[in-house]
Amino acid sequence: xxxxxxxxxxxxxxxxxxxxxxxxxxxxxxxxxxxxxxxxxxxxxxxxxxxxxxxxxxxxxxxxxxxxxxxxxxxxxxxxxxxxxxxxxxxxxxxxxxxxxxxxxxxxxxxxxxxxxxxxxxxxxxxxxxxxxxxxxxxxxxxxxxxxxxxxxxxxxxxxxxxxxxxxxxxxxxxxxxxxxxxxxxxxxxxxxxxxxxxxxxxxxxxxxxxxxxxxxxxxxxxxxxxxxxxxxxxxxxxxxxxxxxxxxxxxxxxxxxxxxxxxxxxxxxxxxxxxxxxxxxxxxxxxxxxxxxxxxxxxxxx
Length: 303
Known about the structure:
alpha/beta; four-stranded parallel sheet; 9 helices; disordered N terminus
């Protein structure tokens, strides 16, 4: 097999078609993803995916250098996959690695998007392989053709699963009043003893958000000063960053803190999770926020 040197001096092996050169390396990046809490504990769960991917790499003498995991999340709109995006940035910057994932359905829901991203990796010389379809070799034309077929099959599976998932979410919201989305600041996602997802208070965020509502509800402090005081007391985002005012106000407007569940499709529904504040306090805070917003717009118009 012919070899060619890349710009960074790494050795590449040249296949016979389409002028793709793949890097010779034993360093591996693993990507894991599940689409819901239910699947997370099932046969496609994160633990099984990781175990199978690590076994696959060990059998080939490969060394795992990074693992990117998109945690389970549910929603009526699209679900963000921040770790997938972070992984792609890492691959494009690092180059000298192999991408290993459990199954083609773990990448994008839409096969066309997956094909585009994987072909970008092909052109960079990054070998990608699915543990469940390890005989599909993207370094050959036949392998890339088979990969496209499998990605289209994965899209059909994802569509079918999404329809069932939407129905489960509808029942969970309207009949069981369980919160299935990503928990907001002050709460955390959990599974009940019977395996059903919901949210529970998460300290210290829960108490700090409660104190934020109580302080604003007094009507003597505006959102800017309230955020400043809560920041001094340690209020931070889930990533440990200082909250911006817009994000803080968005949290204060969320009815999740009065034990309810906001839904774009079904409106605000009652929830079974613990409320952070009373509805009376929540409504007082909404009036304070509306007044502050009107004052801000007035100042802009006068400027």
